[in-house]
Amino acid sequence: MTSIWYEVFPVTLVSEHAVLIRHREEKLPPWLIPNLPDTHPNDIVVHHLTSFFGAVFDPCQTIVHSTSWRYKHEYDQLLLTYLAVLPQGCWVDQWVATGRVYVERIGAVATRYGDHLFPPEQIEWHYALAHALDHLASLSTYDPAIQRVLEPEWREVLRQRSPKSAGYLPTAGPPLAEAAVP
Description:
- By secondary structure, the chain is α+β, with helices and mostly antiparallel strands.
- The chain contains five helices and six strands.
- The chain has helices spanning 41-53, 90-97, 125-142, 144-149, 153-159; strands at 3-14, 17-23, 31-34, 63-72, 77-85, 101-105.
- Strands 1, 2, 3, 4, 5 and 6 form a six-stranded mixed β-sheet that branches.
- The termini are far apart.
């Protein structure tokens, strides 16, 4: 029977750069949270984040948003991906110094594309993170709830993600309007 898991990418800003927050015990991202029956996925993810981050998880300053899903055939798992954008602050330096978390600067992570019917054969975690950041970049342009909560420093970080419409694929040839018609 297929199991459902939530993969969560908690991120924040440190010195105007996006960083991925990792558990002290689990140096490999993402955070994986098992499904609970009869419970909404957002409730599970928010509860887990609140339990771990305590007062740092300010519901008025934190974004928790599902960004994608994928099936991992080798484990018979359905993974629902969430991005959790936590407020920046000195808490990060304190938590890193005490070994409570590790942070990894997020560089120019690329998104991986499938074809018009199927996703790529393999989607590693960093591709899911890239897609989540692309999703946040897009939401930041039109979603009023995200715009209200997203810290202004994120706008520069997300500008590099160049928001794209859902399903965007880079083209190898001329745009359809310029294609020769026989």
